[in-house]
Amino acid sequence: MTVTLQRILASEFPTWIEQSCAEYVGDLLAQGRSHEEARRIAVESMARSFPKSTQSPGNEVFHVMNEVGTAVGYLWIGQDVTTDPGAWWVWDVFINADQRGQGHGRTTMLLGEEYARSHGARSLGLSVFGFNTGARGLYDSLGYETTSVKMLKKLE
């Protein structure tokens, strides 16, 4: 399957922000957060990255397009917030549920690496929720190394 990245247009950006927020809320709920807390965290995160609710420097958001030109997901990539200009970050990568298992995620990550490298990146990092074993397996197979582990025990 051929996958390409297509920059999201400014007119599509508000819809993407809502979709990305909704996906993040879902992940936070799966992690055990309350809906109110999950929504607050997601909205605050987006406001920090996109203060004017529009594209901002240092962030690139792409549709992941399949071979027939249909969007099957998205990729948000950009410079890390550290002082190292060669450090880049995958802020969000999402493949529609009905399109998973077809190699789109792998190809998207490889295209993201290529894009970052062409813009001066020397490293590419990401975070993944512990429960997302499919994504963790993909990142391991692509050569990403675990650099930290955050653990939690509920005391009820």
UniProtKB/TrEMBL annotation:
TM stretches of this protein: none
Domain N-acetyltransferase, residue spans: 3-156
The entry's keywords: Transferase
A Pfam family: Acetyltransf_1
Keyword Lipoprotein tagged: no
Single annotated GO MF: acyltransferase activity, transferring groups other than amino-acyl groups
Protein name according to UniProt: GNAT family N-acetyltransferase
